[in-house]
């Protein structure tokens, strides 16, 4: 049984001067929601949860680029089973709101046929991106399919989306977050903590 996500929806933000943050980013951030060490500790547990389900061959772990790259790297490094690494590039965001148009880059879904697949995503927001991706993989009849998401923003879920990730790190409030791989127009991915952007940037 996978562990329950940690609910951060009522956690006060940590001031940016209470942790080490690049001066280039400091003024843009309202505060830090989840410090790096907390994220790392939770990913260690998610990797243990994933490892509880044994698979026969190698687990095909697909990283959804670009946002999930740090999460993916940490997660697969701690899964106690052989993992075959793969990546897929998808995107729907422009600024802080989902454009609704999911950009798809070429990916040969046939490689999921008969495999135990783990999709690794940074955040589930409206859920449209993951639902589309999961649908594409299911159509190839994988042996099994699981989804790991570092963050979940349930308040924003599209009413038509029924997909529920198998592993979730943290439930977060309806705020635009950056850091730990997550970006705002391709900035802030290298910020080590998960932080909330200033309102004026996200309006
Ligand atoms: P969805 O299709 O609306 O669930 O969008 C999911 C994608 O939007 C994620 O894979 C992220 O790349 C991006 N996204 C959603 N919320 C945030 C956020 O708060 N910060 C950064 N990226 C986000
Ligand atoms: Mg993403």
The number of distinct β-strands equals 10
Order of neighbouring strands in the sheet with most strands? 1-8-7-6-3-4-5
Main pleated sheet: 7 strands, mixed
Bound molecules: inosinic acid, magnesium ion
CATH secondary-structure class: Alpha Beta
The ordered string of helix (H) and strand (E) elements is EHEHEHEEEHEEEEH
Query: What is the number of helical segments per DSSP (H or I, 4+ residues)?
Result: 5
User: What is the name of the CATH architecture?
Assistant: 3-Layer(aba) Sandwich
Provide the CATH topology.
Answer: Rossmann fold
Q: Give the low-confidence spans.
A: none
Q: Would you write up a description of this structure?
A:
- The chain has 203 residues and is α/β, with parallel strands linked by helices.
- It has a single domain (13-50, 57-201), classed as Rossmann fold (3-Layer(aba) Sandwich), CATH 3.40.50.2020.
- 22% of the residues lie in helices and 32% in strands.
- It contains 5 helices and 10 strands.
- The chain has helices at residues 23-26, 36-52, 69-76, 128-138, 199-202; strands at residues 6-7, 29-34, 59-65, 83-94, 97-104, 116-124, 144-152, 167-171, 177-178, 194-197.
- The strands form 2 sheets. The chain has a 7-stranded mixed β-sheet with strand order 1-8-7-6-3-4-5, sandwiched between helices. It has a 3-stranded antiparallel β-sheet with strand order 2-10-9.
- Strand 4 and strand 5 form a beta hairpin.
- Helix 2 packs across helix 3.
- The longest helix has 17 residues, at 36-52.
- It is globular, with a radius of gyration of 17 Å.
- The relative contact order is 0.21.
- The model has no long low-confidence stretch (mean pLDDT 93).
- Inosinic acid binds at residues 67, 92-93, 98, 121-129, 176-178, 182.
- Residues 64, 67-68, 121-122 line the site of magnesium ion.
